[in-house]
Design brief:
Layout (H helix, E strand, L loop, with lengths): L2 E5 L5 E6 L2 H4 L5 H15 L58 H17 L3 E4 L9 H9 L6 E4 L5 H7 L5 E4 L6 H7 L1 E5 H11 L2
Parallel strand pairs: 1-3, 3-6, 4-5, 4-6
Antiparallel strand pairs: 1-2
């Protein structure tokens, strides 16, 4: 069974905990990680870009000049794309980019990401993460003790002192276990759990 050390916020080892092998020690499937990230980023796209075609542009539908006898090419109206202020030809229209991923595959992707971080020693467990007050300086001191660059902090419950202390710190994101996702785990590279958050994640991902 996989095990991991437990620390306090001053990086003093206070114990060990067993991890569920079905969550934190599975085979890392890169194709599932790729699929999960692709789906997540696609679903973030607004798809609201649009332009006006010749039917949507304001203006007269009258012919600029008569059909024949001018020596010029015939023209239908000044809203046509070749005129200044005319409609755009073949421009973008609103589109839905949403992709889907079934629940079983999504869970397997999260397990793969967690297992990858565990095997690469990019995972830390704290017995708790409590700050006496809102202090960005203290929050940064805690993180610097673990000597990493980017942190994803997963708390077992809402903690305003930690969340507000972290909001102006670059390359740090605080979330709860329900919001855990593959994109953020791979983006921030190092994940810090509270002990209770680990148990919540195991409970949610066990078959």
């Amino acid at each position: 069974m996989a095990t991991i050390d437990i620390y306090d916020i001053d990086k003093n080892k206070v114990g060990e905990m067993d991890l569920n092998d079905e969550v934190f020690n599975v085979e890392v499937k890169e194709y599932l990680l790729h699929e999960a990230v692709k789906v997540q980023l696609a679903n973030r796209r607004a798809g609201t870009v649009a332009v006006k075609n010749r039917s949507a542009v304001a203006g007269s539908g009258k012919k600029p000049f008569r059909q024949k006898g001018t020596g010029q090419a015939r023209q239908g109206c000044r809203r046509a794309p070749q005129y200044p202020g005319g409609g755009v030809a073949f421009g973008p229209k609103p589109k839905v980019y949403n992709l889907g991923m079934n629940k079983k595959a999504r869970k397997a992707a999260i397990k793969s990401a967690l297992s990858y971080l565990y095997k690469e020693n990019q995972m830390t467990v704290l017995n708790s993460f409590e700050l006496e007050n809102i202090s960005t300086k203290r929050f940064v001191q805690v993180l610097h003790g673990f000597d990493k660059e980017k942190y994803l902090v997963v708390l077992d419950q809402e903690n305003k002192n930690v969340e507000l202390s972290a909001r102006n710190v670059k390359h740090v994101k605080v979330m709860n276990p329900d919001s855990l996702n593959v994109y953020d785990m791979l983006r921030y590279k190092h994940i810090i759990f509270t002990e209770a958050a680990v148990r919540k994640v195991e409970g949610a991902l066990q078959p």
